Amino acid sequence: MSSEFFGQVFWGNTIQAYCLFGGILLLGLLFKRIVSRFLSQLLFRLFKKFADDVKMDTFIGLLLKPIETFITLASLYLAVNQLKHPLDVVCWHYHKVVDKVKVAQEFTLGELFDKIFLFLIIMAFFWIVLRLIDFVAHVLMYKAMKSNNKADDQLVPFLKELFKFIVCFIGFFVLLGYVFEVNALSLITGLGIGGIAIALAAKESLENLIGSFTIFMDKPFTVGDLVKVDGVEGTIEKVGFRSTVLRSTDKTTIVIPNRAMIDGVLENMTRRNYRRVKFNIGITYETDSEMIKKIVDDINQFLADNPDTSDGVASFDSFGDSALNIQVLYLVQNIDFNAYLKIKEAVNFKLIEIVHQYGSDFAYPTQRTVSDTPKPQA
Predict the structure, then answer these.
(1) Per residue in 252-267, pLDDT tens?
(2) Contact 141, 133 (CB under 8 A)
(3) Of 143, 127, 136, which Cα lies nearest the Cα of 159?
(4) What percent of the chain has pLDDT over 90?
(5) Which residue, of 85, 116, 138, 261, is most buried by count of CB atoms within 10 Å of its CB?
(6) Residue among 210, 219, 207 nearest 155 (CA)
(7) CA distance from start to end of the chain
(8) Is this model's pTM higher than 0.85 or not?
(9) Distance CA 47, CA 136 (A)
(10) Would you put residue 185 in left (φ > 0), alpha (ψ -120 to 50) or beta?
């Protein structure tokens, strides 16, 4: 009796097919979270020795969503395949050449759904692979931060982008081959003029890629270095697949193509042994020569005794339009930029104190007018 009931046909499908459709779909939706968490934990065991310092929740958080999507799509695909109607409905007719003979073919709605589900399932699979790369990069970055080698901090993001690009490239051709049934090798060899156009369009991207490899091989800078490239100054934050990200002193994000980083004039200010400071101070013309000599001598003595400066020298440099110019030159050992500013500030305050100590003052642009001499009265 039950077999007769389940064998009844409604709208081209048996009751049994509808029950299987609903049962598979319901089980997939109910248990996708449990199964995806279980699979995530199972995969984490493979990375456990490699990621001993990273919590499992980080790994599960990355993989939970893509695995849930994969299970949902797989469940929906299995459920839909239990039905015959309307999957057997012909969408369109086409011709296919088999052994040099043109054969009429039919493309059904079921085949269309197969293509769509295959496309989505492949996308979900490569999504999982990309998340695995994210996790591996997270672990490597965590280990790199614990080391003193800044090159690791720079290399990990680059490798992450490189492997993601390779996976996306492979995924693209897998979709072409399995979903659209395109021979990827024939497609590449048959591009002809189009291939030349694509190559020319990709010329700049290829130059930036070569530039990134050059940066990692020559290591002209690492993450955290203060650099100046063709007048643009900033701290290196990230060296990517195509470009380098700098953070300027006013906290502006600057993105420079890697090609420009190696072609332009690059100055790595972090690797300097010293920072050079050079400027003039102008004192008033009322200061006599003896006072100027004493001011210069005191500045030289201060720069020599100051532990934060080296090779300091001061000299009476020139006669300005409104001031007597004393040139001050000294070096500051390459330290943190904020500390460097504090040292400059302390030196400047001391110079003010020395100048005022001898009764002189700092000049500023002034003009004097001489009144006409009164004529003697007759």
Answers:
(1) 899 999 888 888 888 8
(2) no
(3) 136
(4) 23
(5) 261
(6) 219
(7) 150
(8) no
(9) 9
(10) alpha
